[in-house]
Amino acid sequence: MDVDKKRESVNEQLQNSAKTGYDLLMQSESIHRKEWRYTGDKNNFSEHCRNHASMDGVVIPKADSFELIGLDGKKYYPKFPRDPILPEEERISCVCFLQGITSDSMFGMTYEERKHRTQQYINDLADERPDWEKELDAKNRAKAGIEPEGMLPTRTREMQIRAPEGYKLLEEANLRLDKLERNFRKDVEGSIVEALAAVKMIPGVSTYQQAITLKRLADCYYANEHYHEALDYYTAAHLLYDKLPVKRRIEELTIMTGGL
Ligand SMILES: [Zn+2]
Questions:
Q1: pTM here?
Q2: 84 C-alpha vs ligand 1 centroid, how far in Å?
Q3: Least confident residue range of 74-83, 109-118, 198-207, 233-242
Q4: How many CB atoms sit inside 10 A of residue 111's CB?
Q5: What residue spans of 144-246 are helical by DSSP H?
Q6: What percent of the chain has a predicted confidence (pLDDT) above 70?
Q7: Mean pLDDT throughout 78-104?
Q8: Does residue 216 carry a pLDDT above 90?
Q9: For the chain, what are the domain ranges?
Q10: In angstroms, what is the span from residue 2 Cα to ligand 1's centroid?
């Protein structure tokens, strides 16, 4: 592939991903506004869409169009960076992205309502899994010494022999998570984060059990609107155990936190 062809194909990919990101954002009920983000270097102008630097941080309702002054001095009204309505010079080499902003009213719900919705969401995700996946899950849980009902890890004799310190820490983290689920306190959160970081360093602790504990922490962050932390811990949980039903949550949070 020659250089021009390659560049063309990269641009095409960028444009498609911008459109996909915009479509997802439009579908999301929790996102009501959008923000234009410029990722080029403002101090050291590269060839990347430097005339978009002034668009950085512009927030508008999600169905509205941005007002962009083009390199040709004309005004354009794109819905998102690299919108196909823009002339080529505004799209090629554009490294901007669209960030979704969650509506305040959506989260004006009480904590209990939100928790209820979160739980419903989790249940829905669990039900969507194919049967073979649920079966495999049940088998893995049994192997790891976990009760089929409820996602709480339990210690077995074998585990205690393999990595006693690791399982002790994991158990403590889960006891503290019981507290954190009732009342989100910074000091409790901190002690869980520390315990989980320590568990990670100890060989022999089941990655599945670590993953469900990470997911519990992520659920707490999510319910308390700490979306960046929630995304980090859902992602970490998914990396440890990729059958965990968190993929859609990760997608949702990626949009909400602007990782498009
Ligand atoms: Zn740009």
A1: 0.42
A2: 13
A3: 109-118
A4: 11
A5: 157-162, 164-182, 186-201, 207-223, 227-240
A6: 66
A7: 83
A8: yes
A9: 3-106, 109-256
A10: 25
Ligand 1 centroid–CA 13 distance in Å is 15
Residue 84 confidence (pLDDT) above 70: yes
SS3 track for 11-42:
HHHHHHHHHHHHHHHHHCCCEEEEEEECCCCC
> Residue 92 CB: number of other CB atoms within 10 A?
18
What is the rounded distance in angstroms from the CA atom of residue 163 to the CA atom of residue 210?
Answer: 13
For tokens 């155990």, the residue is 241
Question: What number of other Cβ atoms are within 10 A of residue 196's Cβ?
Answer: 19
Q: How far is CA 205 from CA 90, 183, 209, in A?
A: 51, 28, 8
Amino acid present at 245? P
DSSP 38-107: --S-SSS--SS-GGGGGGTT-EEETTS---EE-TTS-EE--SSTT-TTS-HHHHTT---EEEEEE-TTGG
| Amino acid making up residue 145 | G
At residue 56, what is the residue type? D
By C-alpha distance, which of 2, 7, 98 is closest to 47? 7
Given the structure tokens 């403590």, which residue do they identify? 172
Distance CA 26, CA 105 (A): 17
Give me ligand 1 centre to Cα 48, in Å: 7
Distance of CA 38 from the midpoint of ligand 1 (Å): 6
